[in-house]
């Protein structure tokens, strides 16, 4: 078995990574997930071929062979250490649906997998090759802990296992040998050394860890300053009350929707707005009709506040950016979706006006720009969007919507064509719905994750999204 050397240097978790690690509970596991639908290639895609592909790419993401080790008495933030017992077959797994498996059965399986926390005693990721899907297709579900993916020194594994060719270049063989695991005493000595070297910094980090929140950290202040007046003004008050905000259970329901990107661009051209404005307007229309279907009151002034992080790329050379480098910055963006407005064009106009005032709007990354980036960046961008959202208390927004651009050219995994790609975003505390939107190969793909108990009717959302888009298309034509 060929292994690549991963660096293996013991490194302390950043303040935000440590917060993700400690904030997690069994009801709200802090992961970022993705589901790819693959066309089974001629001769099939074997588990062994996928295993070899992942193994060859691990040198690009050395943290995927490291685990988290906590420091005695919590004297310092945990550290990343090489896993001396790393077993790739534990992380890359094989599953199957009763053939011919339907999309509904696939989504039910993803719901169960998404609700399970990751094993904290091992590297914090899992991958499932799902066989038996009807139509000569396969599913590939990936789940990585949010602390593992920061978009800078560590990207999501789905970023590096995709290729633009059915036959990728032969990887350079590299030998990985895990560094010896440090003793508790050594970790204590290192922690004391950090305290002596930077007492103020370590005290602040410890306070953040004990409190299990980062809302008072300097990182949040930097994010809010970057976001501009829109975020600052909205963040001063809590989000409106909504059925979307209640206690989250351990159980999930996952569903998907999709639509031609050309339809969204048609509306965008007709009303001179951003494609992202159209996406938010369609989601607002679907949420409006969802509330009405439940018999909820929907007054004209009703709003649902979304955290919709935006991808920006200021001051960088996109062509030279590699899969192990920073691929983007993601800025927070709080937007009030006017679900009480019955006119879809007015709804779009109000959202477009709100996004125009967002300070990052001038540097948004669109689908034509993102294709120049190496690898398949959407999973990493979704992870970064979730990371930004968790810097704010959940009570300041009703749901998370991540919308990231993907390549418009064909991608492959181990020679299998990627047909569709869906984000599986995590649920945050007291938020029973999260939506991840990805553009890829001329389509928009909506991954919709919900709490099974609070949103048992989440399966109606794909139809409601289609209806909301049809309303805008009719108006545009």
Record keyword descriptors for this entry.
single chain; 22% strand; 477 residues; disordered N terminus; 6-stranded mixed beta sheet; alpha+beta; 7-stranded mixed beta sheet
Strand and helix map with partners:
Blueprint: E1 11-12, H1 15-23, E2 31-39, H2 47-57, E3 66-69, E4 79-82, H3 88-91, E5 92-101, H4 103-114, E6 125-133, E7 137-145, H5 157-160, E8 162-163, H6 184-197, H7 199-211, H8 218-227, H9 229-235, E9 252-260, H10 261-271, H11 275-293, E10 304-307, E11 310-312, E12 329-331, E13 334-337, H12 344-356, H13 367-370, H14 378-389, E14 399-405, E15 412-413, E16 416-424, E17 433-440, E18 443-451, H15 461-476
Parallel strand pairs: 5-6, 10-14, 14-17
Antiparallel strand pairs: 1-4, 2-7, 2-16, 3-4, 6-7, 8-15, 9-18, 10-13, 11-12, 15-16, 17-18
Helix pairs in contact: 1-7, 6-7, 10-11, 10-15, 11-12, 11-15
* Total helical segments: 15
The helical percent reads: 25-40%
Shape summary: globular
| Count of β-strands | 18
**What is the topology, as strand order, of the major beta sheet?**
5-6-7-2-16-15-8
Q: Largest sheet at a glance?
A: 7 strands, mixed
Poorly predicted runs are 1-9, 205-230, 314-328, 361-373
Averaged pLDDT: 83
Helix/strand structural class:
alpha+beta
- How much strand? 15-25%
């Amino acid at each position: 078995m060929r292994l690549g050397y991963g660096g293996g240097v013991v490194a302390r978790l950043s303040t935000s990574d440590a917060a993700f690690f400690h904030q997690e509970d069994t009801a709200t596991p802090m992961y970022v997930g993705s589901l790819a639908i693959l066309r089974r290639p001629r001769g099939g895609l074997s588990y062994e071929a996928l295993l070899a592909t992942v193994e060859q790419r691990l040198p690009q993401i050395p943290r995927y062979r490291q685990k988290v080790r906590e420091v005695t008495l919590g004297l310092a933030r945990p550290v990343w250490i090489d896993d001396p017992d790393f077993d790739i077959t534990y992380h890359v797994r094989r599953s199957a649906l009763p053939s011919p498996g339907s999309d509904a059965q696939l989504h039910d399986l993803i719901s169960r997998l998404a609700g399970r926390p990751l094993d904290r005693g091992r590297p914090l990721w899992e991958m499932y090759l799902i066989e038996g899907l009807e139509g000569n297709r396969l599913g590939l579900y990936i789940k990585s802990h949010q602390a593992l993916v920061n978009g800078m020194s560590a990207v999501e594994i789905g970023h590096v296992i995709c290729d633009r060719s059915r036959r990728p270049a032969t990887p350079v063989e590299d030998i990985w040998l895990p560094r010896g695991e440090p003793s508790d005493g050594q970790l204590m000595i290192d922690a004391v050394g950090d305290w002596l070297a930077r007492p103020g910094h370590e005290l602040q980090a410890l306070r953040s860890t004990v409190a299990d929140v980062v809302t008072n950290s300097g990182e949040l202040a930097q994010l809010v300053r970057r976001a501009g007046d829109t975020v600052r003004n909205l963040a001063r008050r809590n989000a409106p009350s909504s059925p979307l905000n209640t206690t989250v259970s351990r159980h999930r329901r996952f569903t998907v929707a999709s639509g031609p990107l050309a339809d969204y661009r048609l509306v965008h051209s007709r009303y001179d707005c951003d494609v992202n404005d159209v996406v938010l307007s369609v989601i607002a229309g679907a949420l409006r009709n969802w509330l009405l279907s439940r018999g909820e009151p929907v007054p004209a002034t009703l709003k649902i506040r979304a955290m919709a992080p935006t991808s920006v790329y200021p001051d960088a050379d996109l062509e030279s950016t590699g899969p192990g480098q920073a691929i983007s910055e993601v800025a927070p963006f709080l937007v009030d979706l006017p679900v009480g407005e019955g006119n879809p064009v007015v709804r779009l106009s109000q959202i477009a006006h709100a996004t125009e005032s967002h300070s990052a709007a001038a540097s948004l990354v669109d689908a034509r720009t993102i294709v120049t980036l190496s690898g398949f960046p959407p999973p990493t961008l979704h992870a970064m969007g979730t990371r930004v959202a968790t810097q704010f208390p959940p009570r300041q927004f009703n749901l998370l919507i991540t919308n990231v651009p993907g390549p418009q050219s064909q991608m492959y995994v181990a020679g299998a064509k990627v047909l569709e790609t869906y984000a599986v975003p995590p649920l945050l505390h007291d938020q029973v719905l999260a939506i991840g939107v990805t553009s890829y190969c001329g389509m928009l793909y909506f991954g919709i994750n919900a709490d099974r108990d609070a949103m048992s009717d989440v399966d109606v959302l794909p139809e409601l999204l289609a209806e909301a888009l049809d309303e805008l298309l009719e108006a545009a034509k």
